[in-house]
Amino acid sequence: MAAIESFGTTHPGDPEPGDLIEIFRPAYQHWALYLGDGYIINVTPVDEGPPATFASAKSVFSRKARVRMQLLKEVVGNDTYHINNKYDGTYAPLPVEEIIRRAEYLIDQEVSYDLLGNNCEHFVTLLRYGEGVSDQASRAISAIGFVTAAAGAFSLLGLLRSRSRERQY
Q1: Residues spanned by the domain of 42
Q2: I need a labelling partner for 79 at 20 to 30 A (CA). Which of 29, 30, 144, 164 fits?
């Protein structure tokens, strides 16, 4: 795995066209696809101020996103990033020419966005592999499922406890 770096220090290797770029924001990871010559393609919330930032709460609740071509260094800002083609062992990457053609076709398009079902990682993996996948979303869905199951179990325990007390009197 490549080193994690910021633009203030050394670069974590030179990305190649079609590479997935994982950007580490304070509370989550943002994903982009490297196009070449320092540019990436990524999704940003519709009608958000500066297009390079995806860190606001608005991005979490947005239902639409705009596909943008931006300079990698501007999108990363003061955050860190690394090249992360982590699904290459599971999915075969499409030919680079096809990845870039598909990406360029979508520039400036408005697309649907859903944090759990159609997020920035889904977007770039769909371009690279033809399959939209997101470990980040899967982990969130699992956490939500665990919390829901735990809440249900506690509710059931509370109900059983109250019923057993009722019978004693």
Answers
A1: 19-47+58-129
A2: 144
Total number of domains in the chain: 1
- Residues 100-114 have pLDDT tens digits of 999 999 999 999 887
Predicted local confidence at residue 5, as pLDDT: 53
Burial class (CB in 10 A: 0-12, 13-18, 19+), 159: exposed
Active site residues: 30, 120
Chain centroid offset of residue 62 CA = 14
Question: Is 106 a member of any domain?
Answer: yes
Q: What is the mean pLDDT of the segment spanning 126-152?
A: 63
Is residue 91 in some structural domain? yes
Strand intervals (E) in the chain? 5-6, 20-24, 29-36, 39-45, 64-71, 80-83, 110-112
